[in-house]
Design brief:
The chain is mainly alpha-helical. It has one domain (about 25-260): Up-down Bundle (Heme Oxygenase, Chain A), CATH 1.20.910.10. About 75% of the residues lie in helices and about 0% in strands. It is built from 14 helices and no strands. The protein has helices at about 20-25, 30-35, 40-45, 50-75, 85-115, 120-125, 130-145, 145-170, 175, 180-185, 190-195, 200-215, 220-245, 250-265. The longest helix is centred in the middle third of the chain and has 29 residues, at about 85-115.
Length: about 270
């Protein structure tokens, strides 16, 4: 019989969760940092990311942003009221946040317009397969995996790491101040809401995973959750690497300048 879990500690403290889940979070930390500490975000924070790379990133990440409410809806279809405390918790969370994620997609379109991208550019972008792999993975895991595994991969891992790199970019005003004053507010709204608002979402998702699986889930369930979280980070980092490859396609002078920038970051 499942050893039920009901959180009593603070939402945003890892010690509030079952020991097995604490260990999963620790075991996947290296892959998470590969995303949060990616050079693309350091360059973005310092307003040194070339425009063509920013466009590549914004277009390539669009499928994940645009489809995120759909991933949540796929998980919502797995639920009905009254089956378990974990399912009730998940149902309330998903119903509330689907609309929030739709609004975030609208903010992304505003951000993209700051580098002269239209909604059609986002929809029909080319050569973004490396970036769109994350969206494919999120769709697959939401369609095929259990509720706990799918929420761990999407609402915990995707939203959690996104909030962290958004905080990094917003930790300085350099990027925002590099934009024209008349578009600065709407163009940075997506970043600001993820740095300041979404920080509770991944913790709420972790609470759902813990409540669904309890204090002592099977070894196979623990492995599935850890593997899904790790896969999310790997696909995420793959997309960032793919966007950075655009730096190799500029002129010789642009490439030399980018190489110098990255070298300076490595030395810092």
């Amino acid at each position: 019989m499942m050893q039920a879990f009901k959180r009593t500690g603070a939402l945003k403290e890892l010690s509030s969760y079952p020991k097995w889940l604490q260990q999963v979070v620790k075991d996947t930390e290296r892959e998470k940092l590969r995303v949060v500490e990616h050079e693309l975000f350091a360059l973005m924070r310092d307003a040194r990311l070339p425009t063509h790379v920013m466009r590549k990133f914004l277009v390539g990440a669009w499928p994940t942003i645009e489809q995120f409410p759909q991933f949540m809806a796929m998980n919502l279809k797995k639920l009905s009221s009254g089956n378990s405390p974990g399912e009730d918790l998940a149902r309330r969370y998903l119903i509330h946040n689907i609309r929030v994620e739709q609004k975030h997609a609208e903010h992304w379109v505003q951000w993209a317009s700051s580098v002269d991208l239209t909604i059609d550019d986002l929809k029909f972008g080319s050569e973004v397969e490396g970036l769109s792999a994350l969206a494919h993975w999120c769709w697959y895991v939401s369609d095929r995996a259990s509720l706990a595994v799918a929420i761990a991969a999407t609402n915990y891992a995707v939203e959690g790491v996104t909030g962290e790199w958004s905080c990094l970019v917003c930790s300085r005003t350099t990027y925002a101040e590099s934009l024209p004053a008349d578009i600065r507010g709407p163009a940075t709204r997506w970043l600001r809401v993820h740095a300041e608002y979404d920080d509770e979402h991944p913790w709420e998702a972790l609470d759902i995973v813990a409540t669904l699986l309890g204090h002592a889930p099977s070894a196979s369930d623990v492995k599935a959750v850890a593997s899904a979280i790790r896969s999310t980070y790997v696909y995420y980092a793959m997309g960032l690497d793919h966007a950075m490859m655009a730096m190799l396609h500029g002129s010789f002078d642009e490439t030399a300048s980018n190489a110098s920038t990255l070298g300076a970051l490595d030395a810092a």
